[in-house]
Structures are given as C-alpha cells and as structure tokens.
Amino acid sequence: MKFQSLFTLAISLPMAFACKKDAKPTGTYETAEFHRDCTGAYLRWKDKDYKICNAESVASFTGNTSVEVIFHEVNNCTGTGNFQITCDLYHPYVNYIEVEAIK
C-alpha cells in the first residue's frame, strides 16, 4: 500500500508541474500606433513600422489607433501575420514582432 502511494505521487507530481500556465507578459508597456491595411497589421513605434506576426492578437483593433503594447521582435514569422499579400500596396517595415499584450 505504501509503495502504491509513493508510486502514484511520483507519477502525478511531475504532471502537476508540466501543465502549461498562462504566461504573464514580460517587459513594459510602450505607446505605439496601430495600423492595418491590405498588407497586414503593423505597429508604428519610434517612427518605424513593425509587422505583427500574431495578427489574431490584434483582431479587435481597427484603423489608426494609439495603443499601449508589450512586444518583441522575431526573426522568423510563422504566425497568422505572414500571409500572401493580395493587393498592390507596398508597406515597408523593419521586422516582424509578436504582441504579448495590448490595450
């Protein structure tokens, strides 16, 4: 009986710590301008545009809006912001970013 209890504890303890927790945003909020056009969603920060890789995080935002945002640059975008552009507009940007939190 004692062995069974220890075995159960040994199996269940690592699983309790393996569960994914909701990550809190790291960093500080920065003031930026949110822009959206047919080429994607962008943040204008310090007079430079950054294309948002995880576009689903800003789905509720429209137009030219001032936002408070925590983000970080990414070198390889595999998110929803990296799609085939279907319009003739050219929108230059510095790099891709991922938004951690936005308000």
UniProtKB/TrEMBL annotation:
Protein name: Uncharacterized protein
Species of the source: Flavihumibacter petaseus NBRC 106054
Lineage: Bacteria, Pseudomonadati, Bacteroidota, Chitinophagia, Chitinophagales
